[in-house]
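Dear V.,

Thank you for sending over the compound details. I've combined the ligand you provided, adenosine-5'-diphosphate, with the protein sequence from our construct and run the structure prediction for the complex. I'm sharing the raw inputs here so there's no ambiguity about protonation or stereochemistry in the SMILES, which I know was a concern on your side last time.
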Amino acid sequence: MIVTVTLNPAVDHTLAIPDLPEDGEIARTDDARVDPGGKGINVSKYLVELGTETTATGITGDFLGQFVRDSLTEKGIDNDFVDIEGRTRLNTTILTADSEYKINHDGPAVNGHAIETLLETIERNDPDTVVVGGSLPPGLGPDAIDRIARAGDWQTAVDVGGDVLRDLDASYTLCKPNREELAVATDRPIDSLEDCYDAVERLQTMGYDRVVASLGADGAIMATPDGLLHAAALETTVVDTVGAGDSLLAGVLAALERGATDEEALRSGVAVAAQVVSVPGTTVPPLDDVPTRLESVPVSSPEPFSR
Ligand SMILES: Nc1ncnc2c1ncn2[C@@H]1O[C@H](COP(=O)(O)OP(=O)(O)O)[C@@H](O)[C@H]1O
Ligand SMILES: O=P(O)(O)OC[C@H]1O[C@](O)(COP(=O)(O)O)[C@@H](O)[C@@H]1O
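Below is the predicted structure of the protein with adenosine-5'-diphosphate bound, written out as structure tokens.
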């Protein structure tokens, strides 16, 4: 069973307008939606659609926190959050005809007491894998994630910022940086696929058994204990990439959870992400045809890096 931990959940407000308004103008639209969001929560949404048992936990507060919990329950996603006094944040994505703008709030301040309660909550749900995803709210540092990783005999995967990846000290089964996070985590520029291969191998030496790096339209690479794999992205009509990384991670973890090989897991992640980028926001598309699409994901072992 996979427990996802979102320390800083969000209500995702996604709206579409043809162009950004000029100064003093008002843009009006009837194309807007709100979804419960935050990286761990999104992973749980996709895991449920993939038929993998999961519970979403983390820290929520006030009426936006209530919205997150209620809408997960309505969607049939098991959830068990720690409630605090501060207010869960509202994150906005504005889609125009040719651009995507994201505005993310910092979120409410969280104290050590909430983390104690969160550790009890995770333990009560008896996971074999814990996924910690998203930014840290004010008041918490990377040590909060290390505490979660060390608190039980579960495996821990992380989808966190590059600065946090650099600072974590515990052992992790997997991390999922994107290009920018790879650059920050390794403190090196990432200008080519070779730079990515070098960076994921560096991250392995920093305590991550597997590194799945998402590279947008260039697909994804996975550093495994046996070598490197590159999967090209599937061709699809891209509506927006909100939740793309979360869906890639869910596809990988769902496959690993059922005992698939690393290569099958990478194929699964890329096949799931291709479906998710073709729908708006973090809407969950039907994912029942993912098993039939695995073979169409082109996977190679990059030379001369394969061991
Ligand atoms: N333009 C695209 N075409 C096809 N697949 C895409 C595209 N952009 C993203 N994806 C898929 O979504 C995955 C995650 O996207 P990415 O933007 O790298 O993640 P993140 O949301 O973490 O920044 C990619 O590895 C790829 O499989
Ligand atoms: O915690 P962060 O880094 O601010 O990100 C939170 C946001 O990212 C999302 O999880 C989407 O993630 P991606 O677009 O990176 O896949 C949103 O649901 C949420 O609003």
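A first observation: The mean pLDDT is 95.

Warm regards,
I. M.
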